[in-house]
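Appendix B: complex inputs.
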Amino acid sequence: MLELRKIPIGAWIGLILTTLFLICAIFAQWIAPYGLGEIVGQVWEPSSDKFVLGTDNLGRDLLSRMIYGAQTTILIAVLATALSFTLGSILGFAAAVIGGWFDTLMSRFVDLLMAIPTLIFALVVLSVLPSTILTLILVMGILDSTRVYRLSRAVAVDINVMDFVEAAKLRGEGKAWIIFREILPNALSPLVSELGLRFIYAVLFLSALSFLGLGVQPPQADWGGMVKENKDGIVFGIPAALIPAAAIAALAISVNLVADWVLNRTTSLKGGRG
Amino acid sequence: MAAAATASRAGKTDPLLDIRNLRIEAKVFPPGEPPRTITLVHDVSLTLQRGKVLGLIGESGAGKSTIGLASMGFGRGGVRITGGEVVLNGRDILKGGVGGLRRLRGREVCYVAQSAAASFNPAHRLMDQVVEASLLHGVATRAEAEKRAVALFRKLSLPNPETIGERYPHQVSGGQLQRVMTAMALCSEPDLIVFDEPTTALDVTTQIDVLAAIKDAIRDTGVAALYITHDLAVVAQVSDEIMVLRHGRLVEWGGTRQIIKEPRQEYTNALVSVHEIAHDEQKPGATPFLSVKNVTASYGGGKVKVLKNVSVDIFPGQTLAVVGESGSGKSTLARAITGLLPPEQGSVTFAGRTLANRLADRPKEDLRQLQMIYQMADVAMNPRQTVGTIIGRPLEFYFGMRGRERDQRVAELLDKIEMGKGFVDRYPAELSGGQKQRVCIARSLAAKPKLIICDEVTSALDPLVANGILKLLLELQKEEEVAYLFITHDLATVKSIADSIAVMYRGEVVRYGPKSQVLAPPFDAYTDLLLSSVPEMEIGWLEKAITGRRMESAGN
Amino acid sequence: MSSPIVKLIAQRIALGILLLLAVSVLIFAGTQILPGDVAQSILGQSATPEALANLRESLGLNEPAYVRYFRWLGGVLTGDLGTALSSGQDIASSIWPRLKNTLFLAFWAAVVSVPLAIILGLLAVRYRNGFVDKLISGLALASTSLPEFFIGYLLVFFFAVKLQWFPGISTVFDGMPFLDRIHAIVLPATALTLVVLAHMMRMTRAAILNVMQSAYIETAELKGLRAFDIIRKHAFPNAIAPIVNVVMLNLAYLVVGVVVIEVIFVYPGMGQYLVDHVTKRDVPVVQAVGLIFAAVYVTLNIIADIAAIVANPRLRHPK
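Resulting structure:
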């Protein structure tokens, strides 16, 4: 059983912060003190009782926008990660178990996609695609699925040549039993920890795109876009742009801490328990 | 103490190495638990005279390598020497500090590892590594050291002793590397060499030459040695005295003759008599139920022929042992029979009909009749399944058993392999090596097969545990009327359990027949070499075997 | 003696060229998957059908995709990258000064970060599990989580705005004196260094640790060698290949990181140029710049592989 006292301090910080961000994302509409696009004050007002984090480049409440931004950022990142995971792991497992031409074809294609830096390829594709949230999710999910494919294929290939899988094949078991009962349970822990890393990568990638003006488009707000909106304040010593940037970092670090802990926990459990 | 110290300066009669109450601990990090300290060696004492060889013997975890390395003041990983003294050449090396240890290592004590292939740096030529310690400690000039190295290469019967030093480690075979490593240890003329299982990784026919070379070199240079191994027959050939260890404690220490002929402790006795399993050979029946006929198979689409025209028969309830060294094709034969590697030519017939070549084309019933047990029991079981699931699955799969009926049968099978019902909920990681192999046996028995293929099933186990597994297999054979195809490189095992034997060499069966015939002269050249290479627990066996070999080659 | 090595390297280079060709196909194809239409996006929604048809004709959009690809590829190979749709300027001549600027920035970031990362990685191995090591793995964890613009704007906020030591906007121009140029890029180069440093340290540490756990290191210890000599004589020759690999992978990473950093510091390089023209949906420019970035990336990876081949004693001294 999971004993609360045994959770290391780092994991605690990670868990609490991640939960906090998730609550903001889910209940944004109820938590945010002001509306998303509501102009409620002067441009770049400093922090006050009225505006806890001050106002932004158009005089909107920064805290409210941060909360709405959490929703957009996390939603897109979660969907993109889900897409990349489903696509990558199914194809990766299939390639490992089926082998032959399917494996060769898929693997060479993934090599080719990975030969181009992800950001560059995303920019090339986004130069012709319409800037919608769906496009973003598709582009991010598909490009990132190459990494998940590589990992799950490598893990599955390793397991597939183990004697216990051979024993199952000799027994006459079908492909479904081999994938779901022999390989999957043993591939789970590296995949789960990868899930955290892929999510962080999705958050950072989305933020970079939005910062470059190619991600989420106004009037919608995500954290990367908010950095872009407020970046001109920096030269005047106004740190409004640093707040969403720090939020991205905090979210990424806390998920990292949790993923690290999950990885340690699952690999340190002996044999099958857990 | 003081008297001993004075005496040690007096000279020759004092021991070279005097280990007193050695205590070695290690910090372990068990997963999910706080780190704790375990004791690897409990107050072991030993003395070794100049020019003598002391054999350290024991099963895995006995602490023999740990003690060997302690004589150089070295502990692997988190291993620390926490008590006792290691007196070498009259001084306690544990008190000499790091600098003292450095001056001692490679100068007074040298080390020969189990895997020479991993112990040589791949980036440097052999000669540079062989003379490195001599130059470092200023024992010789480069020219002198190289001259000595060449002389040692010659003494150790390495091919091209003049030029082999120019080569890189990957350009030299495993048996040769082991000899180069011995030359490396001897090069700086140390007082003591620690041999840590130097022949364990070698094939049996290579082992005998390396062993003879090591023994000659020890005799001619007058160096003392700690010889660490798990194989009593090997250690009996090279050592003057033998120390038996178990769980980090001393069991028995005595002269070689006394240990192997008149062991005083029960544990030593068990080690000495480990291979004495009584098994009367059964005469082959009238009709074999499984015949391999002229099977040829290869890897890489016909590029590497690994089986050439192999034919063997297996009779109901009997054991066919397939013997050979690594690369002989013995495991490939198992893959061809099971259909994992479809033969290119020839066929496998079972109960009068021909089996499909490919695994995928065989009906379930054929699969059920042929079961397999692997060398590495811990990777042959899914680590995420319980013992109950592992043994229960074939029952569900082949017989459609469910619920109580299945659980009942699983309990019966656990009983058969001498493990209780309590193991049903255990995971493989929670079992010992021997228990894992027993579960694998139960899994194959669950299918009620006619034939079980046993692929080196005892090779990874300690001798006593392996012995238990062999006895169990023989009992089960009587009860269940199951036949075994027993693949092994270990001739002693073969003698204990086989009814008939096939000797394989480079993909061919070179000798085949009932055990009594195969093991009786006249022999073909390879079987003779193989049989004469298996160490016997006899003092002087090595010399006899080597002389026999020389006479033969002279006769040829 | 060295012939198998030459053969392997030749194979690797040939494979690299093939890969570059495939990359060019992919980049070209990436701009053809649109529901959008280049002519439409240039002229906007209000364009008349005649104007659209004329533009399509002059851009060659009526021809099949493969014809356009080969024409484009032929141009690229002869140094003709076409003209920008948005400005009508020759792409090749606009790219050249920007490429120089980008390489200048990446070069100085590499000069600082590579030796620093290797030294820190060695220190982490030397004091394994100690304070330095823990600090490094903590920093590495943080750095994989920090967005580039967070690092960038923090630097700007403190060193350009508060302390005013360096400019927050890195303006460079032709004929600028060398030292002024360096002064201008201090902040972006520092940001880039920080982006790759921790990652490179961690990978270097892992590469050396991997070597340090080999049995031959124990052999050297048991010969009585000093810790420093063990690292120098026995660990280092075997660690070169993995370290070169680490460096190359991170340089490739640096080349991509440059895009965001250039935008933060408004630095007139390739990244800025690419982002501007993606916004303008200027496909020919995006294709050209994308191809150059990808080519640099692929080339660095090939160099890493070749280094690994050359450093492998098994290949250098075959049986």
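Chain B has a mean pLDDT of 87.
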